[in-house]
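Handout, tutorial session.
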Amino acid sequence: MAIISNLTEITYASQTDRGRQRNVNEDFVYADQLRTRARGGKREWLLLVVADGVGGHLRGEWASKTAVTALITDLPKLLTNAAPGDALRRACEAANDATWREAAAAGLDGSATTLVAALIDDADNLWLANVGDSRAYRVQDGRIQQLTQDHSWVEEQVQLGRMTPEEARTSDQRNIITRSVGFAESVEVDVDGPIPLHAGERIVLSSDGLHDQISDDEIAAVTRAMTPYDAASRLVAAANERGGPDNISVIVCSID
């Protein structure tokens, strides 16, 4: 639980699970407060991150952990002097640089990860950064909105009108991503914000092991009806009940 503004109490919970068909969990999640000090005084932030490693076995596990560790190391320093959106972008670029360089030095070429990060300030504003097909959602007044756009082959086909969203959801090509952290020397990061948050909303971050198995409407219904901890646990359990073919990660954040 984190109280990060004078008006709002924010609660959050995370869950990650290897699923029922994988031997290793290549996902990595982070959810915690950051504190910074700049010329404007002390500030408090809440940082939520989901990363889904690619590259197979230990390569993906290593990549997701390396990228998130670099992100949470650099972001507090960047926030002292840069605007939040710019700081978040630069931290993701630093995560890409660290993952790419360390993979090359260790002979782990091809290691990479998706990354979606949500940064909330002490005035209840949200910034998002995204690379790959892990997602951020907003649940508001019974409606769910995907706030990030997947960087995937099937999403490109949907945008071109060559495939419907329903076809993309069941395509055997849906796990082909077109951007990732650590695969190349540089990366393009999608950043959005500030997005004002309001009481009663939920912010949800997930890896594709969750949202490939659970529909958007189901995510909305579960997160609205339960506490963040219970909702995160229920969503992971539901994905496993449907076969758990991939690693499963979710963070549920409630603006109370």
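The second record follows below. Compare its token runs with those of the first.
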Amino acid sequence: MSGVLPRRRGLAGLFAGILCAATVAGAAQADTFDIQVDQARVMKLPDHVATIVIGNPLIADAALQAGGILVITGKGYGSTNMLALDHSGRVIMDRTVQVLSPANANLVTVYKGVARESYSCSPTCAPRITLGDSTSYFTDTMTQSNARTSGGQAGGQSGPAQAPH
């Protein structure tokens, strides 16, 4: 009988260890902030945040707003860390920011050999540049978009609007 008890304690200890590891893994997951590329999300910060530091600004960007509001924008795929510091430089929050691909059902990706093109199809398809698209497709689409934007701005710059007399 005494030979069985240590084995049960061993199993109980193993179970407790697994439970503890699962709890730690759950806590680590809770410290991850997921966002999609080209999207922004709002986060409420702890009190007394003075500075935000993003480990890799090519992955995410953050803008600190009044009232402890932080706007985080997904810039590129991957993960980075984000630190919130108080006025004395003490870290009061350390989170992982994970930027994921768009989860848009209307996004269609077309592969032409190794070249990739993205389209937004709702209800008809139109070019939509996404990180990972082929360089020529990305550049051509961006050039057209910029020309259209600057053309619209130039057309609207006829001087300040004046009220009728």
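Points raised in discussion: Residues 107-154 form one domain.
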